[in-house]
């Protein structure tokens, strides 16, 4: 009787199909992890990366194809004032407004920002006696505040004198033209002499009664039209092609 042959023992370890299946599952897992990580990419950076492949010249001029990662460009943005911070005119306006609020002057002096720059509108009683162009003592505190602020900035300054439409005829001021121009000049002379400001930055204009802000229909409106306006010019705005040629 022949001895019965033993069946071969199965190989030790996991079956070969299981190893292949495990590799496949691992690859699928890695693939989904990769997809998830790509979904978290900053879209701005991804767009910049994509654009760089279209225009290879970007690599010749920028150390980094991502603008936010270029230190030199960040520094340039700060120097150009594009960082979103307030510019000098906004800061000046805030300083002036705070001064007006603290001193109860908001009803006789108006400060606002326009395309021309910061415009300060001072009613006659803040600066002068009626029919005169000599500064009164109570005007000094506000003008000193303006002079101190202007000393820290290079902007051009235009000072306009305005009157109501009632005629004036005196030895010193034959008409409203002379009175309005004299008032504008007096304000400039005080600022330049008291605060040692460059006179070339300033321009005086007398408009007389030609530019009223309200109709000259009675005492209340006459008072509003008798005013001096100080315009701290915005360099971006070219008034009448050049502020010096206004």
Automatic annotation (TrEMBL):
Keywords: Cell membrane, Cell projection, Cilium, Flagellum, Membrane, Transmembrane, Transmembrane helix. Its main location: membrane. It holds the Pfam family MotB_plug. SUPFAM superfamilies: OmpA-like (SSF103088). Residues 115-236 form the OmpA-like domain. The keyword Membrane applies. InterPro entries: Bact_OuterMem_StrucFunc (IPR050330), MotB-like_N_dom (IPR025713), OmpA-like (IPR006665), OmpA-like_sf (IPR036737). It is found in: Cell membrane. It comes from the Bacteria. It is a single-pass membrane protein. PROSITE patterns: OMPA_2 (PS51123). Belongs to the MotB family. NCBIfam families: PRK06925.1. This is Flagellar motor protein MotS. It comes from Cytobacillus oceanisediminis.
